[in-house]
Amino acid sequence: MFRRCFFMCLICWWPGRSFGEDIFRETFDRTRPEPVLKHVWGDRPSKTETNKVENRMAHLRLVFPGKVRNRLSYWAYILEDPEPIIPQMETISFRVKTNLPVQIKIGIRPFGFIYHGPSVEASAEWQTVTLENAYTELKNWCAKGRQSARDGYVASVIVAVHDRANARADILVDDVAFTGPPGAKEASRREKFLRATARVRIAAVSLVWDEGARTLENALAALDEAGVLRADIACLPQECVDQPPEPIPGPASNAVARKAAEYRMYVVGNLRERDGDAVYVTSFLCDRGGRIVGKYRKSHRLPYERGFRLGDDLPVFDTDFGAVGMKIGTDHYFPEIDRVLRRRGASLIVWSTLPFPQRDEHLIATVLRGRSMENRVVVAVARYAGRKGYGGYSTRFSWTGSWPIGRAQVFGPDGHTVADSGHRGGVAIGAVPRSQLGGKARDGGYPATGKFAAVVADKPPVPQNRSPGMKRRIKAAVIEREPNLDRLMEKLDVCGRQGCDIVCLWEYVWYHSDAEVEKYKARNRARLARIAAAAKRHRMYIVIAGELERGFNESIVFGRDGREIGRYTKINQTTSKESKYYRAGERVGIFDLDFGRICTKICADVGSHEIDLVAGLNQVDLVCLSTQDSGPYSEYIRLREAHRCIDNGYFLLRAAGGGRETDHRSYIMGPWGMVLAAGQFAANNAPLIVALDLDNRPKYYEWPEKLRDVPNPVRFGIPKSEQEKPAYGRFNHPVPKGDLRAIVLGQRRPELYRPRPSKE
């Protein structure tokens, strides 16, 4: 009887017994691209003998050098489709045979975290390295880094090899697995879908800039509209209520905060703030409960701005969808602000602004799109619109050639427009994928040492000493990809006959291994000698770059006399680190020529916008970019280069060509971000030659002097009978007051770009 009951209980129990379900498993049964494991950190082997799938296992055979630094070498299995961190994730493991101790580590995206799991000793037998209670462990790990696991993904499983000097590693890896209870795989699939489709609704508001329009009532009505549209955050323009300064919190800011609570949304408002005797221009963040949880006081200004003090911080604030940074008005002219906010965790930057004296929509929109793309950040723009519609052209009155151009916009992290109110203003609401936001506030910034230390130096670099008679009108040329040296010399002669002052050449590769460096050294030096002779023959500068003769990637500047002026070693070096010639640059390539200052960059250097910042700080006139760069896609390239030209005030000579997209080409671009000349796709292009006036750059504009004593002249609706008075005549245009970039450089605050002092 007892035996019968026992078996009946066993039968009832067995179907409900959980042995775990695979959320994911890699058994290496299918062909995978090599190498199958990627070195991501730690000691590099002197030789990788094997890194591929063999007999349905990942096989890694490594030889380490006689000197190792970390005694750890990370080799990652990277998931093609990262797994979301969910409560059903119970274990993460892999099986291993190894002659050295190994440890399991977990790469967590998008935070860049690496979780350190258990290890096993060397054994010729199969062992399983397992992270138990995976969800709890990874959730707690994310929390330590002030991130939420609900936004995290397991992107890689890392085989951490405990190496030593002269060690030979022989490691087999199989069954990389994520397991959980029954239903875990479906739970993971569902979570991926929910995360992929989750949206944050961002409402950018454009109010009317006109007499009587900038009222608290109108600002609150715009927030009502944003709330009805189910916004998660609504953003108001600068000084959204035209009133005397008041404390924050105060009557107007509290009214805004009540709207945030009413619609359970975040709101960024902006007012003139009084704090004791001081007045600030302040953006404030209200949370979904109607509490004012953060303030940012405008930290930069241009010379024409008066009547307020500057704040001394670039803070970032946490929300339930990610970290938010704020900018105000002419902060726009300082690209360092955007980058610092990003380094401090911001995934959304809110720009609240008044109209500028000169309202060049091309310059504004190109920079906004370029920076959002460059910094991989969402940008919400709250600007004003004119009462009469587009530009107010239906009346004769015009303050600066038009009323405020408007508009409210939201840009995605690829630089594309997500929402736009148009020039009539209103509420632009963009649904941004939740996955594009996130992050937590932190204290990042630019380091005070290293190759880009000039960004935060107390004193800017010394500008070039230019004599009164210095030649500033030049002819500049670009010769794109031309592998045939004889044809290259012919094209250089064309440039010489046209009277070119400087020619930028392509990025050449004249050898492909250490052995070829020595084998072709004499040949390659002879090639450089021919190019130097062309420089001397035509009394012109020539810049050439690539892997030319010394075993690493560099550029050479030849002078008008054919002699070397100097060389620049590529900072983002693409020469293999395993090469005995490997060398990476430690300084930005800046050279003074007889017509101005130039900077040279090469190919992958485009990945470091700090090079351009340093060039801008040095007031470089011309950047020579020799490149085989053809990605990620042509629109990205043009937008990247255009906003950098505008932000840093230089002309660009881009020598490229050979890309497969029709718009991958060479061009010459001005400091307005406009292409002045370009080559054709897949054609044997003649040299691009353009006459450049190096002093013809974007100007800094101010209100006319006769309007200095008129408070906020754009604000007033002027009766027709008064429109011809001098103070408000339609002929009163903004006045150029100097070079914009030079003025901006004088208003920088490098102390704010350094990492914030930790509060802990």
Summarize the structure.
By secondary structure, this protein is an alpha+beta fold. The protein contains 13 helices and 37 strands. Helix 4 (216-228) packs parallel to helix 5, helix 7 (361-375) packs across helix 12 (634-648) and helix 8 (485-497) runs parallel beside helix 10 (521-538).
Can you characterise this structure?
By secondary structure, this protein is of the alpha+beta class. The chain folds into 3 domains: 15-196, Galactose-binding domain-like (Jelly Rolls), CATH 2.60.120; 198-447, Carbon-nitrogen hydrolase (Nitrilase/N-carbamoyl-D-aminoacid amidohydrolase, 4-Layer Sandwich), CATH 3.60.110; 474-693, 4-Layer Sandwich (Nitrilase/N-carbamoyl-D-aminoacid amidohydrolase). The strands form 7 sheets. Strands 1, 3, 4, 6, 9 and 11 form a 6-stranded antiparallel sheet that branches. Strands 16-15-14-13-12-23 form a 6-stranded mixed sheet. Strand 24, helix 8 (485-497) and strand 25 (502-509) form a beta-alpha-beta unit. Helix 4 runs parallel beside helix 5 (251-263), helix 7 crosses helix 12 (634-648) and helix 8 (485-497) packs parallel to helix 10. The N and C termini lie far apart (69 Å). The relative contact order is 0.08. The model is unreliable at 1-18, 389-402, 710-718 and 722-729 (pLDDT under 50).
- Major β-sheet, in short? 6 strands, antiparallel
Q: Examine the secondary-structure arrangement and name the CATH architecture of the largest domain.
A: 4-Layer Sandwich
Low-confidence stretches are 1-18, 389-402, 710-718, 722-729
Shape call: flat
Helical segment count: 13
Domain count: the total is 3
Which CATH C-level class of the largest domain is it?
Alpha Beta
Percent helix range: 10-25%
CATH superfamily caption of the largest domain: Carbon-nitrogen hydrolase
Alpha-carbon distance between the two ends: 69 Å
CATH topology (fold) name of the largest domain: Nitrilase/N-carbamoyl-D-aminoacid amidohydrolase
Class by helix and strand content?
Answer: alpha+beta
